[in-house]
Structures are given as C-alpha cells and as structure tokens.
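[worker-b] picked up task from shared queue
[worker-b] task type: protein-ligand structure
[worker-b] ligand name resolved to adenosine-5'-triphosphate; SMILES cross-checked against name lookup, match
[worker-b] sequence length check passed
[worker-b] input payload:
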Amino acid sequence: MTTPALALRGLTKAFGGLVAVDGLDMAVRPGEVHGLIGPNGSGKSTTLNLISGLLRPTRGQVLLEGRDVTGQGAAARVRLGIARTFQNIRLFRHLTVLDNVLAATYPRTRAGLLAVLARTPAMRSEEEAARRRSLELLDLVGLGRRAADLPGDLPYAQQRLVEIARALATGPRVLLLDEPAAGMNPAEKQELLALIRRLNREFGLTVVLVEHDMSLVMQACDRITVLNFGSRVAEGTPQEVRRHPEVVRAYLGTRFADPAAREARSGA
Ligand SMILES: Nc1ncnc2c1ncn2[C@@H]1O[C@H](COP(=O)(O)OP(=O)(O)OP(=O)(O)O)[C@@H](O)[C@H]1O
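[worker-b] inference finished, payload out:
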C-alpha cells in the first residue's frame, strides 16, 4: 500500500472537559482531494489546526508522508510541506496583495527575511525570483491585476483566493483549505472548484477540503471523511458518503442523497 500523504492516528484534542477531536483516524492518499465534513462544532477546524501544528494534540499522531510530525511546530510543518488557509481570512491588511504572497515565500528563501531586508546582491536576485513566482501564483488564482491593491480593496471572495496564493507560495505538498467557498456566489464557487482541480491535477497537490457547501464538496473530492462530535462516522467516495444512512439522516438531508435511495424511501 502506498504511504498516505497525510495520516492521522488516534488524534484527540480536549479543551478542558470538551473533547473536540476524539480518536480520529484518517488517511489522505497522495494526490487526492479529501473532504472533511460534518455539522457545526464537529471538530473540522480543530483537526486542521492539529494537522498544521497550531494546536498540539492531547493524544495521537500526525504523519506527513509517513514521517511523524506531531512534535513539530507550525513553522516547521510549513517547511515540511503543509500549508493552509483560514476560515477567518488572515491577511496583512497594510501590505499589498503581492506583498502578502511574497511574505509567505520567505520560509523557502535560503537566508530568510532578515537577509532580504538587508538587501545583499544575492538576496536581491532571490527576492526578484520570489516576486516573479508570487505574481505567477496571483495569475494562477486570477488576481494578477490586483497585485498592487490592498486586500481590503478586494471583494471577500477574492481575499480568499489571495489566501490560497499565499499558501501556495510556501511550496506545499499538502494544502489544507478551511471553508474556502464561504461568502462566494455560485459563479465564484465554480471558479474555486476549477482552481482546486487544477492545483490537484496540474500541480499534483494533495488537498484537504473543509467546506459546508455540499455541492462543491461532492464535485471536488475523491474521498470524504465525515465527522460528528470529533469522531469519524463515515468515509468513502462522494457516492458512498452521500448514500450512507447516518450521513443522510444527520448532515446532508435528502437533497444530497442518492436519487435511487430517495425514490426507494418515498416509495416511488
Ligand atoms: N480553543 C478552543 N477552546 C475551547 N473550545 C474550543 C476551541 N476551539 C474549538 N473549540 C470547541 O471544539 C468543538 C469543535 O470546534 P471546531 O471549530 O473544530 O468545529 P467545526 O467542525 O470546525 O465547526 P464549524 O463548522 O462551525 O466551523 C466546538 O465545540 C468548539 O466550541
């Protein structure tokens, strides 16, 4: 069996008496788009925080391509290839869109931010390359023309795309997206879907997608893990998950259920 791009083993996070993530096992295969869904408060964001190293688990392990990264901090995990976006957009408000993306490239530059600020010649050429790369990433997410703007001048949906460009600037192998479609209209969601597919297929990125928009999740994902009360209640392809009785009953409603199952239930 191939080593998972990302594996969670018995991952548990308690906040005082509240167990937000409870013995979660999950394996994300290399090159797949893996959905993580569940009702409000089921532990999705906490799971992303545990994967990205913003939170330390109470128990359990996070493995990146077979390597145990549970003891590594968030910055180390970025360098190892895990990048993320946030449910609540976290951009530098006083930096341009381009500089927001550029700032994320520094973990990848050899000498780091201080040397770049000192502006040695070697650093200047490295900075030029990083600037070109950042512009390419903004083009990729469709925002090349907004590079000089401040994030606050962009509609909310586009700010989410800047966050994706910024995550890409760290050169990840695994990209964690926390509700990227929040605040997007249907046309913007279609563009987001196309972007996720492109990142996955053309750039070989493994993606973990936390998202409430079930239509987007069902279209974007190869496999889906369903959480409730911090535990896995179902896992499988979109087809399998949307037919899962517990999922249909608890989370998706009949709207997303398999049409044949819906007809059987209604006696049609
Ligand atoms: N830092 C924290 N301190 C205490 N409790 C927390 C903390 N973070 C999350 N929780 C609790 O853990 C549970 C899981 O929260 P989490 O945000 O992971 O759920 P979620 O599935 O992402 O929800 P949503 O879909 O609403 O974003 C919730 O009961 C939440 O109140």
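[worker-b] attaching auto-annotations
[worker-b] The CA atoms of residues 32 and 206 lie 5 Å apart.
[worker-b] releasing lock
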